Amino acid sequence: MLRWRLAGGMSIQLAAAIFCMLPLFTSSTGDIRHHGTSRARGWRAGVQPAADVTANNTVSNITAQLGGTAYLHCLVGHLSERGQVSWIRKRDWHILSSGKFTYTNDERFQVLHGEGSEDWTLQIKFVQKRDNGTYECQVSTRTGIVSHYVRLQIVVPEAFILGSGEHHVDLGSVIHLICIVEKSPTPPQYVFWYHNDRMINYDATRGGITVETEPGARTQSRLTVRGATLKDSGNYTCSASNTEPASIHVFVSEGSNKMAAILRRNTSAIHGITSSGTCLLLLTSVLLHFGLR
Ligand SMILES: *[C@@H]1O[C@H](CO)[C@@H](O)[C@H](O)[C@H]1NC(C)=O
Ligand SMILES: *[C@@H]1O[C@H](CO)[C@@H](O)[C@H](O)[C@H]1NC(C)=O
Ligand SMILES: *[C@@H]1O[C@H](CO)[C@@H](O)[C@H](O)[C@H]1NC(C)=O
Ligand SMILES: *[C@@H]1O[C@H](CO)[C@@H](O)[C@H](O)[C@H]1NC(C)=O
């Protein structure tokens, strides 16, 4: 009898330990954030593969965001006096530019070349989906024609909320939602959260709401609503400046989570388990207990 009770008590402790370790196991989102910001730094600095057009038929890939500006670099060293640099769109063999002159009515295209510079950049503003494709930087010299190709890929930013379309939380607990905006080399200017039709980023009447947004190539916005009440149920929408909105349905109910109910019933057993330090101690004691048997 005593043994049984001991074992029972231990299983509750183990459950508690696992439950409070959960945040540690789900911390992989931290990696995403880190990855996102480092990638964003790369984009902002304009680090793009650019080839020196001395080797023939080189290819580089670049990505541009729908509505943004694309820079297609072409480095030409020692261009002789009669040499000429042209940009050609492979889709329709349209000669977009020759030297510093553009041969297109589309004013979004422009060649950027500073005096004495080796860079002949084709700039495309307000990038559209149909700009997707390959562009050729053709350099004609006395010895022949040498080409560098740039594959331009247009990406369309997307937003989604982690988890399935439904999110269940217990009365009084915390609603925690994470919205990801990806395929967005230029981070969105803002991410707004809505509860049904109401914008809640700066909601002071409800209180207990925080929004943290980490901009990057993969922007992450975290919504936290503390002390969930039945009124907090409903449709939550994440709306970023450069994407379609994403929604999730939140259900606040009593005792939807059996584990949480067990934990509440045994609050004395797990009293004060809030820090992961205590959790670790608890887990260690559980492991030791089993290990010594
Ligand atoms: C460019 O992208 C293609 C596929 O889209 C890939 O095969 C190639 O290796 C890439 N080139 C570079 C230089 O990244
Ligand atoms: C570069 O390659 C093209 C075909 O891909 C060829 O026609 C051209 O002569 C080459 N240029 C040089 C300088 O080798
Ligand atoms: C752009 O072209 C690539 C292949 O060249 C394709 O995989 C991609 O889906 C295209 N993107 C858009 C937005 O059309
Ligand atoms: C949630 O609200 C948004 C904006 O009001 C709406 O576009 C979306 O369809 C709603 N989603 C659900 C599941 O009701």
Question: Summarize this, please?
Answer:
With 293 residues, the protein is an alpha+beta fold. It has helices spanning 2-25, 29-44, 258-265, 276-292; strands at residues 58-65, 70-72, 84-89, 94-98, 101-102, 109-112, 121-124, 133-141, 144-155, 158-161, 166-170, 175-182, 191-195, 198-199, 209-214, 219-225, 234-240, 246-253.
Written overview of the protein:
This protein is of the alpha+beta class. Among the domains are: 48-155, Immunoglobulin-like; 157-253, Sandwich (Immunoglobulin-like), CATH 2.60.40.10. Helices cover 22% and strands 36% of the residues. It contains 4 helices and 18 strands. The chain has helices at residues 2-25, 29-44, 258-265, 276-292, and strands spanning 58-65, 70-72, 84-89, 94-98, 101-102, 109-112, 121-124, 133-141, 144-155, 158-161, 166-170, 175-182, 191-195, 198-199, 209-214, 219-225, 234-240, 246-253. The strands form 4 sheets. A 6-stranded mixed β-sheet has the order 1-9-8-3-4-5, with no helix packed on it. A 5-stranded mixed β-sheet has the order 11-18-17-13-14, with no helix packed on it. It has a 4-stranded antiparallel β-sheet with strand order 10-12-16-15, with helices on one face. Helix 1 packs across helix 4. It is rod-shaped and about 80 Å long. It binds 2-acetamido-2-deoxy-beta-D-glucopyranose (NAG) (4 copies). Residues 129, 132, 153-154 line the site of one 2-acetamido-2-deoxy-beta-D-glucopyranose (NAG). One 2-acetamido-2-deoxy-beta-D-glucopyranose (NAG) is lined by residues 197, 235, 237, 247, 249. One of its GO terms (biological process) is synapse organization. Residues 1-17 form the signal peptide. Keywords: Membrane, Signal, Transmembrane, Transmembrane helix. Residues 49-147, 157-249 form the Ig-like domain.
